[in-house]
């Protein structure tokens, strides 16, 4: 029997439109200015709360386009509607992943009023950031993004940055750390430029990548700990609780559980599993769509999901991982979107993405743990000793790796 869904993350696309044009962007529809209707947002959360499948903590990530091109007033109305419908037993936290170029005092007021998690895409100092993060006219966006970050700091809004690592930045862990510290950035997440959708990364498939990324992350992590000024490094701080967890508690991988992640586009189309699948085309998997929240109930969408080739093949991929991979107990079977785009099949196993996001951090933590010379019984204190996390950080739970 299939387990009852537990919806823990909802990725809502307020609009597909983005005001800039990064060279590595995978979003296929980023010039479309359509905005999700308030009635669609209302219907979505009515369905989630009525289903009884809402986790006690739901993270709502407004993303998959630039969320800040939609006015502040839109979110004030949407957040208030969701709050009115929310059962007392469910806590909702809103979160934005933004390029930061439009942040001003009005946005900061919204972020503070609603305790919004804010992630800013920033690839490092100007020469690294402007390599790929360009305006629609081809100019670098560093000045506008850093102005947005300084505005967040002026208004005491907690935030994290997500930096996409390139060939150049992989050799510069110390320079990157010095830059973050000079800008008061103390919560950091790294992505490595990936192949997804129309975008093909030259970096991601190189044979040297695992070694280079491990060297980068090892140096960055240890220098960050020495500095005492970094509060959260996602790659380590989210891996630690997956590794040092109570006996018998399985790792949850919400990218492979039906409806654990609900991904909803600006027209109300619903997908699940990896959020990057939404908006992509694939005849065999019905463009990864499971229904439309304006016209179907969540129960109907779940029935479609459970009967779909998409679910069947993702489950087969997890099963294959469980049989073959030493890292399965911390990973839980990986990211379907990367299996599909790197290997051409959801039923496959190892990807460059899982090598970097699961295997490398696990190896580095074990390496550091060995140096601590703790006994297995001291695993919890070892996790505390290795963590940079003071408050848990503002970063959303995985996946929050969209550029
Ligand atoms: S690390 Fe890779 S191969 Fe191993 S379980 Fe995860 S996705 Fe599968």
TrEMBL record:
InterPro entries: Aldolase_TIM, rSAM, rSAM_sf, rSAM_SPASM_GrrM_OscB, Sulphatase_maturase_rSAM
Cofactor(s) essential for the protein: [4Fe-4S] cluster
SUPFAM superfamilies given in the database record: Radical SAM enzymes
Residue stretches making up the Radical SAM core domain: 2-237
Entry-linked PROSITE patterns: RADICAL_SAM
Pfam families for this protein: Radical_SAM
Protein name: GRRM system radical SAM/SPASM domain protein
Species per Swiss-Prot/TrEMBL record: Reyranella aquatilis
Name of the encoding gene: grrM
